[in-house]
Every structure is written in structure tokens, then in C-alpha cells.
Write a structure and sequence with these properties.
By secondary structure, this protein is of the alpha+beta class. It has 1 helix and 4 strands.
């Protein structure tokens, strides 16, 4: 995958529980793995989706505080798109 800024990232989807949850793993940060955990659940007003990110690796202590705000800002649009896709299925 390539980001908008052109940086390459290897990604993998793992620990898939169909219709319920998955983890997206990315290696786009030096010496750090990003693990995006996503849970999907039907609710009375559509679909409820939650997401969290965990940084792992020897430089995660450095990149977490530097990137946390930017990563959190991307959650809204991403989760809205995921909810729309889940509701189409």
C-alpha cells in the first residue's frame, strides 16, 4: 500500500472474526509495527464500529507520542467508510 504522501507500507489483515473484528498490521514506521484493532457490531441505529491502535517495537515509545494525534484524526472518516460497507453487506 502507498500513503497519500507516497510512502510504502506492507499491510496484513489478521485475526479475522467474520462480521465481528479484525486486526490490520502495518510496518510503515521504522522499527515499529502498528496494529489497528477494529470491532464491528450491529446496533439499533446502524453499525457500531470501534478502533484502537497499538504501536509495538523498539521505537514505539518515540513514534507513539509523535504520531498518535494524526492517527486518531484519521479514525473518523475511516470508520464511517467501514460502517457504510458493513451496512451494505
Amino acid at each position: 500500500m502507498r500513503t497519500r504522501s507516497g510512502g510504502p507500507h506492507n499491510i496484513a489483515i489478521r485475526d479475522v472474526e467474520p462480521g465481528s473484528s479484525f486486526i490490520l498490521e502495518s510496518d510503515g514506521v521504522p522499527a515499529t509495527r502498528l496494529l489497528f484493532s477494529c470491532d464491528v457490531a450491529a446496533s439499533s441505529d446502524g453499525t457500531h464500529i470501534s478502533q484502537a491502535v497499538t504501536l509495538q517495537g523498539p521505537l514505539s515509545f518515540l513514534f507513539g507520542p509523535m504520531m498518535g494525534g494524526r492517527i486518531a484524526q484519521s479514525f473518523g472518516p475511516l470508520l464511517e467508510g467501514l460502517a457504510a460497507e458493513a451496512e451494505r453487506s
